[in-house]
Amino acid sequence: DAGITQSPRYKITETGRQVTLMCHQTWSHSYMFWYRQDLGHGLRLIYYSAAADITDKGEVPDGYVVSRSKTENFPLTLESATRSQTSVYFCASSSLTYSNQPQHFGDGTRLSIL
Amino acid sequence: KQEVTQIPAALSVPEGENLVLNCSFTDSAIYNLQWFRQDPGKGLTSLLLIQSSQREQTSGRLNASLDKSSGRSTLYIAASQPGDSATYLCAVTDQTGANNLFFGTGTRLTVIP
User: Fold this and answer.
1) Chain A residues inside the 8 Å CB shell of B45
2) Which of B51, B99, B106 lies nearest to residue A48, judging by beta carbons?
3) Which residues sit opposite B14 in a β-bridge?
């Protein structure tokens, strides 16, 4: 089915571990985004990508790494997880920027770091 | 930095009532404003997008207005239904970065049958 899928849906890990969250979209959208959603802060942009091999920092990029070797995939890696990174992570995609096209969101990954 | 505020944080109304959700933003130099719906445990679904040059957008029972100069937007829901129960988020795209969506913290709506 067309759409944007995130995996895993739930993840529990320990501080200091590396964890990768996956995001896959089937629309061939150029732009992809990673947000985190925390109580009291709303959604905040972590990283975004305008195309394969092009990535840029958002509002809260520290502690995260992204890559985009293929248009359809945009994995987010926490290289050494900390408790402050416990959050719900959303991936999104859109076809264009500065346009009328909204961002389309995945169902999220709920990440708990113990 | 752009700050987006949504009031109230939670709202309960009886079925059939018309209601208004409010969104305000501090920097009027926006490119567009979007309203999203979020159901528990789910991602965000885009409801309406208003370009900065527009005053309002309508989709079915939903009407969103934008007053850029005063930094305000409202989402009007007519004849509310229990299925409208969800969290509603507004977000603005500013003119400094094409991909910077700034979100409010949302209004949690409950429509009582």
Assistant:
1) 105
2) B99
3) B112
All residues of chain A having their beta carbon less than 8 Å from the beta carbon of residue B31 are: 98
Dihedral angle of Cα B35, B83, B44, A71, to the nearest 10 degrees: -120
> Is residue B98 pLDDT above 70, yes or no?
no
What are the tokens at A21?
């969250």
Whether the predicted pLDDT of B71 surpasses 90: yes
| Contact residues on chain A for B64, CB-CB shorter than 8 A | none
Residue B62: both structure tokens together:
């939903």
A42·B44 Cβ contact <8 A: no
Question: Which two tokens mark A92?
Answer: 């999104």
Query: What's CA B80's distance to the chain center, in Å?
Result: 15
Question: Residues 6 or more apart from B38 whose CB is under 8 A from it?
Answer: B44, B45, B86, B87, B88, B89, B106
Number of A–B residue contacts, CB under 8 Å: 57
Helix (H, G, I), strand (E, B) or coil at B82: helix
Q: Which of A50, A49, B103, B12 is nearest to A64 (CA)?
A: A49
- The predicted-structure confidence for A41-73, as pLDDT tens digits, reads as follows 889 999 999 899 999 999 899 999 999 999 999
The DSSP string of A74-111 is --EEESS--GGG-EEEEEEEES-SSSSPPPEE---EEE
What integer pLDDT is reported at residue A39 of this predicted model?
A: 85
